[in-house]
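[Discussion] Sanity-checking designs against the backbone

I'm trying to build intuition for which residues belong where. Below is a structure token string of 219 positions. I'd appreciate it if someone posts a full sequence so I can compare it with mine line by line.
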């Protein structure tokens, strides 16, 4: 497969998606909508889902991530298990970092663009994938990627249950307005803070990491 194939699928799924959501807003329209149209929409979505396991190097990061985003948020995608999508994105991110150079830059730039329009995460079960990606972004010294991942992972559970996710408490404090006083003093939180200061303290705009460290120690 290649960009042209998936770009065509993305366009068709997007067109079906707009119509399906529109029909759902009108129950009578949805009830009267043709089964053929709904079947065509699902068949195209099923073909697009294959982008998650397609390792063809001819697929650009932009097309891959646009397709993956539809696998998460489209009419049919919203009803699927999101874990396979984030498993795939995690694997692609890891491969991009391992390749270094242009491939790594292209993927992270495409991911940041995708994250800018990402709605709030409604699937806290995918936090393990986001956690792995965040550690990778921190260790690669990339605060912009960290913020993009946080934007995708953002959900109410993170803000309300930092006791269950202490390292996310550190990341929320580092890249949002979360208060350090609310972070439990656990080995996971301390390790996440040490990792941040080790890899990002010298990055532009991250000078206040020392203040986060000092404030965390004060509470």
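Best answer:
Here's mine. Compare freely.
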């Amino acid at each position: 497969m290649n960009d042209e194939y998936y770009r065509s699928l993305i366009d068709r799924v997007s067109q079906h998606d707009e119509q399906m959501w529109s029909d759902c807003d009108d129950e009578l329209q949805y009830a009267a909508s043709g089964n053929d149209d709904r079947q065509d929409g699902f068949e195209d979505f099923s073909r697009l889902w294959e982008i998650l396991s397609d390792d063809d190097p001819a697929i650009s990061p932009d097309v891959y991530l646009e397709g993956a985003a539809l696998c998460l948020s489209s009419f049919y995608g919203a009803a699927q298990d999101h874990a396979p999508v984030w498993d795939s994105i995690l694997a692609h991110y890891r491969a991009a970092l391992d390749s270094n150079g242009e491939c790594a830059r292209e993927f992270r730039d495409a991911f940041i663009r995708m994250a800018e329009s990402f709605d709030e995460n409604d699937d806290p079960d995918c936090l393990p994938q986001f956690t792995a990606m965040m550690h990778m972004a921190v260790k690669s010294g990339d605060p912009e990627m960290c913020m993009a991942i946080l934007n995708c992972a953002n959900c109410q559970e993170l803000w309300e249950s930092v006791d269950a996710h202490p390292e996310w408490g550190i990341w929320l404090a580092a890249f949002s307005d979360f208060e350090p006083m609310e972070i439990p003093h656990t080995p996971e939180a301390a390790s996440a803070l040490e990792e941040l200061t080790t890899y990002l303290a010298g990055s532009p705009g991250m000078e206040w990491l020392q203040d986060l460290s000092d404030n965390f120690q004060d509470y």
